[in-house]
Amino acid sequence: MSDMAGAVRTADAPSAAPAVPLRVRLGVAAGTVVLRLLALTWRFREVGREGWHALRATPGTGVVVACWHGQLLPLVWHHRGEGVAVLISEHRDGEIIARVARALGYDTVRGSTSRGGGRALLELVGVLRRGREIAVTPDGPRGPRHTFAPGALIAAQRAGVPIIGVVAHVDRSWRLRSWDRFEIPKPFARITVAYGDPTPVPGATPREAAEHGAAFAALMDALGARAESAARAAR
């Protein structure tokens, strides 16, 4: 979803979107309709969202919401209409995802978590300091799968906002043969969503913040295990 190599673009600072062929635009429109019909059959269960709710009780508090790239579909659907902005790459593939996200009511922030510096990072920090909740895929847009790129860590640390991990467990799904094993829940799938506690990024410098990628990836893995355990218990 994200690639901070280019400038960050938000609804507050619009710029021209990359050109997308008509057939792709039509495909996105049709795909969004199919997604809505499919997603209406999904059933969601939340685990451990109290920390996020508590954070939202303080207006104007920014947060980085981290989820794995391969789990985007059910999570984007589940959190639609909640006011979360989505960080999406500047590439053409990112523009396709951005169109789907906007069709579901999301604001989009164009940039990346794959790199730790540059003007794009500074702009992302500014968006977070203004109190926005921004969803990122720290292993996107190219992988490796389930790794935490430094950009999200550095942005959260410099903005002084926490990271909340969000992981989904789907009881039945199709998986694409892509680097992220992109997951499409089947009709009537049961989806358990586990939320981590708001966690600040340690370190006084960007370099120190970037060193905690493995630790945050481990937190995400633990959330995945928690979601799977809760799904089993609910059967």
Write the layout of secondary structure elements.
Blueprint: H1 22-39, E1 43-47, H2 50-56, E2 63-66, H3 72-78, E3 85-88, H4 92-103, E4 107-110, H5 119-129, E5 133-136, H6 150-159, E6 163-170, E7 173-175, E8 183-185, E9 190-195, H7 206-210, H8 213-233
Parallel strand pairs: 1-9, 2-5, 2-6, 3-4, 3-5
Antiparallel strand pairs: 6-9, 7-8
Helix pairs in contact: 1-4, 5-6
Search tags:
alpha/beta; 7-stranded mixed beta sheet; 8 helices; 9 strands; 17% strand
What would a concise description of this structure say?
The chain is of the alpha/beta class. The protein has helices spanning 22-39, 50-56, 72-78, 92-103, 119-129, 150-159, 206-210, 213-233; strands at 43-47, 63-66, 85-88, 107-110, 133-136, 163-170, 173-175, 183-185, 190-195.
Overview of the molecule:
α4 links the parallel β3 (85-88) and β4 (107-110). Helix content is 39%, strand content 17%. It is built from 8 helices and 9 strands. The chain is globular, with a radius of gyration of 17 Å. It has 235 residues and is an alpha/beta fold. The relative contact order is 0.21. α1 packs across α4 and α5 (119-129) crosses α6. It has one domain (43-233). The protein has helices at 22-39, 50-56, 72-78, 92-103, 119-129, 150-159, 206-210, 213-233, and strands at 43-47, 63-66, 85-88, 107-110, 133-136, 163-170, 173-175, 183-185, 190-195. The strands form 2 sheets. The protein has a 7-stranded mixed β-sheet with strand order 1-9-6-2-5-3-4, with helices on both faces. Strands 7-8 form a two-stranded antiparallel ribbon. The model is unreliable at 2-16 (pLDDT under 50).
